[in-house]
Design a protein that fits this description.
about 200 residues, Jelly Rolls, twelve-stranded antiparallel beta sheet, elongated, 1 helix, mainly beta, single chain
């Protein structure tokens, strides 16, 4: 638009204006060249349900509770599960260099449910793998932030998991088992920042 305003004139001083417009156009091209830039998004889930991206609860696992974060619910996608499972979708693909999940967990597992069936982690849905491998809950302390580690694959879709109990039958759940995710902070790189 700036350049078009100078086309219909013979004014000699406009040569300088046109040159400056070309310089501005070059700057805009350099800034939008597609180079990934670092970002850090802080997500206090006790304050808001969608601190960045779009959050969708999957298979009825989890419920947002203001002041508490995402708390567990029971669902039957295959076996019975108690926990939180949320898909986080971004407008543009990102690479996560670290994600920090803050959570709480209480109670014993259901009878017959081993630690390998109880998961905490962030899953890269587009690439089809856990970031950092995912961690069975049996090997983790409770209520301490968990660092996922780095991922090397761009993705716009992730699944945040905290499965705190699993049983073949609903009646096998331990009545005192509960869990919640209170915070998710992510850092990485992207052409456009996913943070608000």
């Amino acid at each position: 638009m700036l350049l078009q305003s100078t086309w219909d004139t013979d004014d000699a001083g406009l040569d300088l204006v046109q040159q400056r417009v070309f310089n501005l156009i070059d700057l805009f091209t350099e800034c939008s060249g597609g180079e990934p830039l670092p970002f850090e998004c802080l997500g206090d889930l006790t304050l808001e349900a969608q601190p960045f991206g779009t959050w969708t609860i999957l298979e009825s696992l989890g419920s947002f509770s203001p002041g508490n974060g995402y708390i567990d619910t029971d669902a039957q996608p295959a076996n019975w599960y108690r926990g939180v499972r949320i898909q986080i979708t971004f407008d543009n693909p990102i690479i996560i260099s670290d994600a920090v999940i803050t959570y709480g967990y209480t109670g014993p597992h259901a009878s017959g449910a081993g630690p390998d069936s109880v998961w905490l982690g962030l899953y890269n849905l587009d690439a089809g793998h856990w970031i950092g491998g995912g961690v069975p809950f049996g090997s983790m302390p409770t209520a301490i932030p968990y660092h996922t580690g780095a991922d090397s694959a761009y993705s716009a879709n992730f699944i945040l998991y905290l499965i705190c109990d699993e049983a073949d039958l609903e009646t096998n759940f331990s009545p005192t088992t509960s869990c919640a995710i209170t915070r998710l902070d992510i850092a990485g790189s992207s052409v456009t920042s996913p943070c608000p």
